[in-house]
Amino acid sequence: MRSATLFSGCIAALATLVSAELNISQPLLSRQVLPSIFKPPQVFKNVNLVRTTNLDKAYPRETINVIIENVDSAPQSEYYLPFESGLISRVGGLEVKDKKAPEQGVFKVEVVEYDTESPTEFYLIHLPTPLAPGAQQTLSITYSILSALSPVPSSIEQSAKQYLQYTFSAYVPSAYETLKQKTKLKFPNSDVPDYTSLSSSLNADSVADPQKQGSTFTYGPYSSIPAGASEPISVRYEFTKPLTHTSLLERDIEISHWGGNLAIEERYWLSNLGASLKNHFSRVEWQKTSYMSPATSALKALPIPLTPGALNPYFTDDIGNVSTSRFRTGARESHLELKPRYPVFGGWKYSFRIGWDADLSTYLRRLSTGPSYVLRVPFLEGPRMPEGISYSRIHVRIILPEGATNVQYQTAVPIVSSEVGLHNTFMDTIGRTVLSLHAINLVDDWRERELLVSYEYPWTAGFRKPVVFTVGMFAVFVTVWVVGSLDMRIGKAKKA
Amino acid sequence: MAATEGDQFLKQATGRNTRGLLRVIILCLIAGAAVSSRLFSVIRFESIIHEFDPWFNFRATKYLVQNGFYSFWDWFDDRTWHPLGRVTGGTLYPGLMVTSGVIYHLLRFLTLPVDIRNICVLLAPAFSGLTALATYLLTSEMVTSPSAGLLAAAFMGITPGYISRSVAGSYDNEAIAIFLLVFTFFLWIKAVKNGSVFWGALTALFYGYMVSAWGGYVFITNLLPLHAFVLICMGRYSPRLYVSYTSWYALGTLASMQIPFVGFLPIRSSEHMSALGVFGLLQIVAFVEFVRVQLPSKQFQTLLRALVVLIFVVSFGGLVLLTVTGVIAPWTGRFYSLWDTGYAKIHIPIIASVSEHQPTAWPAFFFDLSMMIWLFPAGVYMCFRSLTDEQVFIVIYAVLASYFAGVMVRLMLTLTPIVCVASAIAFSQILDTYLDVKTPKAESNENGTSDPAKVAASAILPDSLRSTRNPLVGIYSYASKLTVVGASAVYLMLFVLHCTWVTSNAYSSPSVVLASRLPDGSQHIIDDYREAYYWLRQNTADNAKIMSWWDYGYQIGGMADRPTLVDNNTWNNTHIATVGKAMSSREEVSYPIMRQHEVDYVLVVFGGLLGYSGDDINKFLWMVRIAEGIWPDEVKERNFFTPRGEYRVDDEATPTMRNSLMYKMSYYNYNSLFPAGQAQDRVRGSRLPAEGPQLSTIEEAFTSENWIIRIYKVKDLDNFGRDHQSAGAFDKGHKKKRASKRKGARVLRVE
């Protein structure tokens, strides 16, 4: 009887969840499949374009500032941004803003995909207000490209410098004609042994291409580049730091109303994409050089700043606790310093898990209207290193208390997919409500972005566990009593 | 009148209930103490599986939990003993893993998804609580005093002899086996006392469980028949014995044969023959008893004599015949080593190389049993005084277990329960005597009508006889009582202190993780094993074969998750000897062996930098001896000693030693850590040769932070078909050596 009501309640809760999911905040990224013979309508013109490629981290970050002009006779709102099909799956965190009015927020962006094998794929940028014919607008497009840097030479001595090669097109790929453009490259230092020199005849100013200025190179300006033009160039520069890459990050955020606790666990599958060791690892050399702590392509430590008030951190891997970690905590900051069991050289892997607790009251607010709660947590935490870290896939799970309904979320991070499910763990009867969010191709720049989750949690749901537990214990006692008082002796009972 | 009687009844009932409740509470507290004193390692280090064998058990348990019971039963493990593999499902005692698996699934059913690792780590402490309970039950069967049982339970809970094998994380067969051992004995005593099929069948059930859990079940298999045999010899044959023994033997043997690893051993191996023999003897005795009732005594005598002789001749002849024809397996080497402690050293070095198979040193008894070592004989003596059927059992158990514990260190474990029981009997006797505050009344009272025997005696004998006067002998002064009781209390407290100290200092180290102290007193963890194992796990191919000495096989399987050549199962001596030969030979000999076994990495343990004495150079002689056992012409132990018979690693080390792969791998590149000519081995305390060894067929792949683990990669064949020595020489710019010198090095052809 009880289970039947529970079951129907569960069904009802699920039904509301499903209906709720339809009207939750629209994900910023969606996909749209276009016919194979698609070509973007030539309704725009890039008046002036400046691309800044920042190479001081372990992944290139590009910012394209472009003044676009509507050359069509009707107002237009769809601007296409082309990428090579191999590249688009590694482009992460693409954000478009109006340079003149950044307070308007980010524009809606979707990935447009051909259904055949086409060399080019597009991001489709929706301008919030259609651009009138002849009008101009300045877009600021930022994104980072994962796994775009390759170490050359691909294997080096243990304490040698590491050089990375970055290959791209001197002409910014565009679906529209570009009147004037240039590309600025910012290197981490001025040690750039190899780079492609273009003939000065291509250059609009007829000067040597590229122009060097310290650690900054400038390709261009180029004038009147037609749509789809490309001019491959590659640069090779010194970067003796690890290329830390996380192929998968699983992040669980578990809420306990009874304990007033927020438990966070993160599981990392790390690897170093840098140059591999030419010879094998030599401990002697490592110990000799470690006193001077020179720049190295090996990953030695992972500093993780946690939100202040973090408690009980742990750092384990598949075979137990990793004792080489430090946790510094204070009123202002909590700092977790992880040291992998071994220095992670190029081509090596290291997977581990960390976790910590926090006081729930700093993250959770109860709304004044009804039994609703709002949770505000960072979407992504994780290491903060000067050389950066990139994530291919991120799975975030928000494990809400058992019986939480009407889950909605909002975040500035592009989410690929999301679902609400159930998770059965300690002493659950119907299972805890879980919101799973999947994101791809993020970098450590996104670690400040917040995730807001709102849900309803009636007070009766909070008593489900104690009641079920009490009833269960009582049932056990009753059963024992009944069984114990049965007379199962063969033959007649002796009279006392 | 009825009312007062009822009152009396109620009062007694509440008294009994109170005492029962108190007993339950005390037992719970004892179990709590037993569990908590085993948690040192979890608190100091972490929840981790200890040592070597537990890693295999843990791995097997994970396999069981992931793949289910039937695939566990049929498990063929191709990741050990490469390239042979191991029929793991049929060559292990599954009781431990199945117990953990059942607990795991039960907890999941109760919506408590506890990690399987935590179940495995805490299984031994949990079962030690049960062992304390079982000891209470066993002791309570022996003596009437209930305090003896409680004392025995407390002793069992904290005695180091048992804790040594049951701290949290030591997930070994003994973890549950000692509980099963004690509980089976309890059930057996119960069965003998009651002569009940029910208790006999329960004994068989738990005996079956014990067989599934530990190879030490043979101890029960021989002890119970011995008990029955001694009882028969003492003329104490009774239908009770017949019923309990036959029901145990029939059901228990069937149960034990269900375990694939045991199979038909109970009817085919010599170790089990005593149980069968006593079973037969009991039938005869029962038959004879039956006949005796039917026949007059004169004829009976003749019949008996003829019968006994005939049966003895027939059965002994049959046994010999069967043994000779090979139907019954003769005694195994492990068994011989129980009788002759030198046997293993000569014939089976692989058994002798395990430290826990060494004979026990005297201090170990005091270390593991503390004050019980002198209470134990007293308890056994007290059993002699009354010598009921169950006390005969104690005596036999005490004698046998004492002997075995002296022969092999690990069998201290089987001695511990009986020591606890016997010393608890002795101790409770002391306490019962001296804690009694009441002084018996003077003789005048004693000559009352209470004792009919005494009345009769006094009627016959004159009062003046001294022997009949039966004066009130004893110590009744409060001071003396207080002294004795106080001393006992002090002993008990010292015992607790000793146990806690031993547990915390000697038995709570995971041995996977080493602890040291920093100058400021804080704990520093030396985690080299896991560093290297995790490196293997993360950065080598999934099926990269690792060659190491067999001690580390289980750990590599469990932590690094890579195939190994040999492991702690040691079922194939030749394979181990092959690895020993590869380790102890020159590179030119080792390389073909390693190529033939598809070895990708070689792992050695080297403690020279840290002063870690359990390293491979110290174990090296065992490798040599085991290899010599198979290839006496190629590996010779003598060549590893200097002419003066010393085992050295410094300048005076023999050429054989310095050219052996193990020596080279241990010291490769080691002297570049030190100023020239200053390289020091901190374990052997010797200065190493100025020039370190050179390697040509393998290359260093990884060395852990404190150099404890060194991993080498076996080089692939040379691209030009040269052998690695000449290739290395060519790279260095040396002239090519003459072909005649290359004769020794065989180049392996690989198609």
TrEMBL record, chain A:
<dbReference type="GO" id="GO:0008250">
    <property type="term" value="C:oligosaccharyltransferase complex"/>
</dbReference>
<dbReference type="Pfam" id="PF04597">
    <property type="entry name" value="Ribophorin_I"/>
</dbReference>
<comment type="subunit">
    <text>Component of the oligosaccharyltransferase (OST) complex.</text>
</comment>
<keyword id="KW-0732">Signal</keyword>
<dbReference type="InterPro" id="IPR007676">
    <property type="entry name" value="Ribophorin_I"/>
</dbReference>
<keyword id="KW-0256">Endoplasmic reticulum</keyword>
<dbReference type="GO" id="GO:0018279">
    <property type="term" value="P:protein N-linked glycosylation via asparagine"/>
</dbReference>
<comment type="function">
    <text>Subunit of the oligosaccharyl transferase (OST) complex that catalyzes the initial transfer of a defined glycan (Glc(3)Man(9)GlcNAc(2) in eukaryotes) from the lipid carrier dolichol-pyrophosphate to an asparagine residue within an Asn-X-Ser/Thr consensus motif in nascent polypeptide chains, the first step in protein N-glycosylation. N-glycosylation occurs cotranslationally and the complex associates with the Sec61 complex at the channel-forming translocon complex that mediates protein translocation across the endoplasmic reticulum (ER). All subunits are required for a maximal enzyme activity.</text>
</comment>
<comment type="pathway">
    <text>Protein modification; protein glycosylation.</text>
</comment>
<protein>
    <recommendedName>
        <fullName>Dolichyl-diphosphooligosaccharide--protein glycosyltransferase subunit 1</fullName>
    </recommendedName>
</protein>
<feature type="signal peptide">
    <location>
        <begin position="1"/>
        <end position="20"/>
    </location>
</feature>
<keyword id="KW-1133">Transmembrane helix</keyword>
<keyword id="KW-0472">Membrane</keyword>
<feature type="transmembrane region" description="Helical">
    <location>
        <begin position="467"/>
        <end position="486"/>
    </location>
</feature>
<keyword id="KW-0812">Transmembrane</keyword>
<comment type="similarity">
    <text>Belongs to the OST1 family.</text>
</comment>
From TrEMBL, chain B:
<keyword id="KW-0460">Magnesium</keyword>
<comment type="function">
    <text>Catalytic subunit of the oligosaccharyl transferase (OST) complex that catalyzes the initial transfer of a defined glycan (Glc(3)Man(9)GlcNAc(2) in eukaryotes) from the lipid carrier dolichol-pyrophosphate to an asparagine residue within an Asn-X-Ser/Thr consensus motif in nascent polypeptide chains, the first step in protein N-glycosylation. N-glycosylation occurs cotranslationally and the complex associates with the Sec61 complex at the channel-forming translocon complex that mediates protein translocation across the endoplasmic reticulum (ER).</text>
</comment>
<feature type="transmembrane region" description="Helical">
    <location>
        <begin position="175"/>
        <end position="191"/>
    </location>
</feature>
<keyword id="KW-0472">Membrane</keyword>
<keyword id="KW-0325">Glycoprotein</keyword>
<comment type="similarity">
    <text>Belongs to the STT3 family.</text>
</comment>
<feature type="transmembrane region" description="Helical">
    <location>
        <begin position="391"/>
        <end position="409"/>
    </location>
</feature>
<feature type="transmembrane region" description="Helical">
    <location>
        <begin position="119"/>
        <end position="138"/>
    </location>
</feature>
<dbReference type="InterPro" id="IPR048999">
    <property type="entry name" value="STT3-PglB_core"/>
</dbReference>
<feature type="transmembrane region" description="Helical">
    <location>
        <begin position="273"/>
        <end position="291"/>
    </location>
</feature>
<keyword id="KW-0808">Transferase</keyword>
<feature type="compositionally biased region" description="Basic residues">
    <location>
        <begin position="733"/>
        <end position="751"/>
    </location>
</feature>
<dbReference type="GO" id="GO:0004579">
    <property type="term" value="F:dolichyl-diphosphooligosaccharide-protein glycotransferase activity"/>
</dbReference>
<dbReference type="GO" id="GO:0008250">
    <property type="term" value="C:oligosaccharyltransferase complex"/>
</dbReference>
<feature type="region of interest" description="Disordered">
    <location>
        <begin position="725"/>
        <end position="751"/>
    </location>
</feature>
<keyword id="KW-1133">Transmembrane helix</keyword>
<keyword id="KW-0328">Glycosyltransferase</keyword>
<dbReference type="Pfam" id="PF21436">
    <property type="entry name" value="STT3-PglB_core"/>
</dbReference>
<keyword id="KW-0812">Transmembrane</keyword>
<feature type="transmembrane region" description="Helical">
    <location>
        <begin position="21"/>
        <end position="43"/>
    </location>
</feature>
<dbReference type="GO" id="GO:0046872">
    <property type="term" value="F:metal ion binding"/>
</dbReference>
<keyword id="KW-0464">Manganese</keyword>
